[in-house]
Amino acid sequence: MGLFPIFQTSSSGLYLNRIWMDAIADNIANVNTINPYDEAAFQARYVLAESVPSSDTEPVGVGGGARVAGVEFGSAEGRLRYQPDHPYANEQGVVRYPDMDLGDQMTQLILAQRSYQMNLSVIDRARDAYLQALNIQPR
């Protein structure tokens, strides 16, 4: 890690939260996407995060940050709904909706936004502390 590890740790969290919010935004944009019965439903994306362990050379209390460990996808089966008047309905009048809940996605978005804000606050407080340290003058 570099001279200011707190900035690198928090920036890794910002990057992770941005990826998380992008996935949630994609999910929300497709929450009402309808597919024909013979096609797979839209699959929600779920970002998996993991912590990065700190090395022995880093100061105590400063972690290594966070990173995207992978992405999981929701059910391709989706939710089946009877809508005989829909153009994508099969002979039985069934269409596929994604198997996700808008309320759950909005909750996830709020969590991701708050986490992003917290990482920005850490960067802001660290910047202020470093600037104050630069203003210390010997008597």
Any chance you could write out the topology, listing elements then pairs?
Layout: H1 5-29, E1 35-36, E2 45-51, E3 66-73, E4 79-82, E5 94-97, H2 102-134
Antiparallel strand pairs: 1-5, 2-3, 4-5
Helix pairs in contact: 1-2
The best one-word shape is: elongated
The sequence of SSEs as H and E is: HEEEEEH
Biggest pleated sheet = 3 strands, antiparallel
Low-confidence stretches: none
**What is the oligomer described by this structure?**
single chain
- Roughly what is the average pLDDT, rounded to an integer? 88
Helix content: 40-55%
Spatial order of the strands forming the largest sheet: 1-5-4
* Distance between the amino and carboxyl termini: 33 Å
Q: Domains counted in the coordinates: how many?
A: 1
Determine Rg (CA atoms, Å).
22 Å
Class of secondary structure makeup:
alpha+beta
- Counted by DSSP, the helix tally is 2
> What percentage of the residues does DSSP assign to strands (E)?
15-25%
| Strands, total number | 5
